[in-house]
Amino acid sequence: MDIPISDLTADDLSFRGEGEEHIVLRIKNSLNVIRLRKIKVGSSMLMTELIERAQRDIIFLCKVARPAYGPLITDHASLVRLSSATVQELHEKIKHHRKGMRMHKEINNYGIGCLCPDAALHYIQRTTSLVENQNGSYTSKTEEQSMEKNSFILANENAMKPHREKQSPYIQEISLTPFSNSRTENLTGCTEKNSSYMNADLLCIEIKPKSGIIDFSVPNNSFCKFCIKNFLKVEKGNETTRSLYCPLDLFSGKKNLMQKAVDGLFITPQNNLNVFKWGPNIETSLQTGHNFSPRWQKVKCQYR
Ligand SMILES: O=P(O)(O)O[C@@H]1[C@@H](OP(=O)(O)O)[C@H](OP(=O)(O)O)[C@H](O)[C@H](OP(=O)(O)O)[C@H]1OP(=O)(O)O
Ligand SMILES: Nc1ncnc2c1ncn2[C@@H]1O[C@H](COP(=O)(O)OP(=O)(O)OP(=O)(O)O)[C@@H](O)[C@H]1O
Q1: Cα 59 to ligand 2 centre (Å)
Q2: Domain with 245 in it
Q3: Where are the transmembrane segments (predicted)?
Q4: Each residue of 136-154: pLDDT tens digit?
Q5: Is residue 177 part of a domain?
Q6: ipTM topping 0.90
């Protein structure tokens, strides 16, 4: 299978995030990102293998994740290929955004990736509200509403407009044609203008809560897997301080411990919390010790 080479250049792309397997780039003036598989520096992979892997991800998404979780939290994706010149330029361009522990891998030599909607620019209209129970836990007010039944809108022109009209429970097909930018340029402009009308910022919260499981195979151990790994991360120099977050607190069902967990995430977000405002993520490196940076403080006030 051959994939046409996109005419996107490094100037059209900016760093959005990175995990162990992928580097994610935002396509400027669009509502999409490209998720590019990484390979070990100095190694190479056959183009067919890279395409097969990306296709496997897409098939998993369509055949397993979407039916299981619904369209609210899963997206469409399609294959994309960047030119080798663009990939070479990107190595240099995104270098300063990347963490040292990630540098042993780089974007694959063929620039094969998946094009998908930018999750940080989705607007999801909330139709349910949470009510606090007597025991301090929360349930949805309209429990009979399934995720699919909730009305929501994906990021497109309508998503950025004020939602005065009654929304029906449907999902709008997102345009995966980011390469003609006029539509989305208008959208970006409209986004800023309408923000005062909506009187709110478009925030996207990425949380990686990990599992709250104590490893009982270790005698006398009272730490969960996350906390043990966190000790090691500090020891290896991959993190500078211990995380104040613990999944055992978050999943305890006790309000004060859950609050402690959320506070821990805001104080030491590390790899577990990311907040995006109108696309780019809010700088977390401004945090010092236990003091929230003013920007985090603002987000935190909004969540309370
Ligand atoms: O198991 P963990 O806790 O080390 O989780 C790994 C994650 O580490 P974390 O502690 O969240 O920084 C790790 O996260 P990062 O990419 O380092 O952010 C990966 O998600 C890894 O999955 P895979 O090997 O890429 O499929 C994760 O591995 P698996 O959970 O898939 O084994
Ligand atoms: N569709 C998206 N829209 C916006 N940002 C995204 C999107 N997909 C990924 N990102 C950002 O890029 C980061 C890395 O992506 P992702 O977690 O998919 O990489 P990965 O290498 O597959 O991760 P892991 O190995 O941890 O599973 C994410 O943490 C997130 O901040």
Answers
A1: 18
A2: 206-303
A3: none
A4: 555 655 433 433 333 333 3
A5: yes
A6: yes
